Amino acid sequence: MQKNFAIAVHGGAGGDSDFIRSHLEAYKEGIKEAVSAGYAVLQNGGDAAGAVKAAIIKLEDNPLFNAGRGSALNENAEVEMCSSIMDGTKMKFGATAIVRNVRNPVELSAAIMENSEQLYLGDDAATRYAEKMQVKMEPAAYFITDHAYEDHRKKMEELNKATAHRSHGTVGAVALDAKGNLAAATSTGGAAGSKAGRIGDSSMIGSGTYANGTCAVSATGDGEYNILYVTAFHIAALMEYKGMSAAAACSYFIDQKMKGINADIGMIVMDKAGEVHLDFNSTRMFRGWQKSNGPVNALVYKDE
Ligand code: ASP
User: Fold this and answer.
1) Which atom number of ligand 1 is nearest to the Cα of residue 264?
2) C-alpha torsion sign, points 187, 136, 79, 108
3) 46-64 residue pLDDT tens
């Protein structure tokens, strides 16, 4: 018997901007395109890990989102990306940090999960493994969009005046397939103007990404806080050990655990029944989802 399946994605939680307001429809289209790519995998009998990978590739290829093409630039105006993927049934993961030139870091993470004995590769080791696995590579210029460059320029000006506001973004996906497998994946260009070599939460299992037999979680926001609070695992633990619903776990985490903490935090959660919960404490989180035989949804702000 065909069981429920579902996919949800996020395109990062954070503040609003004129750029976002003037590209709102394009952001929503990008989210819907990613949801549909993941949904198609599930509908054709593919597994949850394949679905999250397909969804993230769409977002990495879309220059509007801070992952793959369109990644934030670090202090040296270079792109360094991080990503991870986790299969909750097999309890397997693959992760990459400080990745350069790899068109789709999530593809590299998936190749690591499927083929490598060592599961978290960074910097040159990640590049060498990408070459070995014949993952698609691009020249540095491919990743740098006008928008990311302008963001970087402003950020460096602010940093020099020490009035910096945080500027970041990420993409993520969670899925349940018809066989009941859960998977999560996250991919990012990191935070604009950050130190070269900075590693955020997105590549870290437990912080940015987590999946087991109970749920799949992808987190976004200020990476240092997601590392500190082990956000993705935190949610999974509340659900597994305390029997909380995804909504109750997210609300406990955001409203009580993170209370008074000045950080943008967002997460998307899929439970084993295919219920989706998407939560955040920031002004907006690009997000979308689709459940079996349901419509594609895409939202940006809280009260839409
Ligand atoms: N968490 C990402 C990072 O810190 C950024 C984001 O999700 O907005 O690298």
Assistant:
1) 8
2) positive
3) 999 999 999 999 999 999 9
Q: How many CA atoms does the CB half-sphere of 148 hold within 13 Å? A: 31
The reply to whether 170 belongs to the active site is yes
158 or 28: which leads in pLDDT: 28
Quote the mean pLDDT of the chain.
94
pLDDT tens string 194-213: 999 999 999 999 999 999 99
pLDDT at 162 over 50: no
Q: Does residue 282's CB lie within 6 angstroms of at least one atom of ligand 1?
A: no
- Give me the amino acid identity at 128: R
Q: Give the confidence band of 303 by pLDDT, cuts at 50, 70, 90.
A: confident
Instruction: Quick: pLDDT tens for 169-187.
Output: 899 999 999 999 999 999 9
Among 96, 127, 170, 188, the one annotated catalytic: 170
Residue 91 CA to residue 264 CA, distance in Å, equals 28
CA of 187 to the centre of ligand 1 (A): 9
